[in-house]
Amino acid sequence: MPNLEPQQLYSQVEKSIEAQTFKPLYFFFGEEPYLIQQAVQYLKVCALAGGAADFNFSSFYAADVSVSQVRDEVETLPMMAPRRVILLREVQDLTEKEWQELETLFTTPVDSSVFILVGSKIDKRKKFFKILLEQAQTVEFKKPFENQVSGWIRHICKGHALGISDEAIQLLHRLVGSQLTEIEAEIRKLADFISPKTEIALEDVAQCVSKKREENVFDLCESIANGDRVGALEQLVQLLDQGQNEVGIVSLISRHIRILQLIRQGLDQNLTGQKLAALAQVPPYYVQDYTRQSRKWTMRRLEQALLVLAETDKALKSSPLSGHIWLENLILKICAPQNTLGASSERQEATESRFSF
What we know:
17 helices, globular, Helicase, Ruva Protein, domain 3, Zinc Finger, Delta Prime, domain 3
């Protein structure tokens, strides 16, 4: 069955409401949890409209439920309603044996149920994902590009009956980043903060949204560029204190380094102002800050830093060692003064050897 774009899914569900003929099997996956959650909620509400919703909806996480229980729920007839909705989250956690037990629900789905499977990262080469992709109505939810985030901020605000200025959008994007789940959480806070007003202004974002994370990432990268290992480690601790996990910290640093890399490329092309901001996909108000910091890095150091960050991300997700060890090793590898690039003392070589990827 061909994949749908997210917008096509909503159109299809609207038609299903009119005809009262929903698909029995849906598969949502991707790296944007906010969009997945919105789609699941919309499909659930539409599929259960007009029936006893409380008696006909079940939700499970793959790691916490037996497959036999899921099968029983899917095969149970609806109560005082035309259909049931069964939601199974994080399906990438299912074992091969569990996939085998579910296979008949894919090849011969139950028409009286709407079975929604949700996953994050999947391997499309695996047999059972291939079967699911062929049999289910499938939608992949990708992270929006940087230049699409502003539109999503306005869309989320509209969903909360809020207006927002262009300047406020740019600042919110800068402070929160591109994760739509986090953006919505901040918009909820802003709604309470400005109540009873319904228009978010620049000063509202400046007062309400925390700047600590963005400032610490910026300061961390500056400490790294200056070869200040002590300062860099202090910034890491502050990010951890704010609730960022190790993988999240690597992701934040990687995003910042990529912006610096794009700024350097733009400067080499003699770009300035709006053109430089467009290339780096950052609000134009902050190009000057990124430009100042980018001059402290060579392109070679930026490329090496991204390689080490990718290696660290892989190690954090697969190594039994403490995440703190890999983060400290990250600092040791990329936090070196420019004039010592490529050179290391015997002590540093020994350290890097000990924590080699």
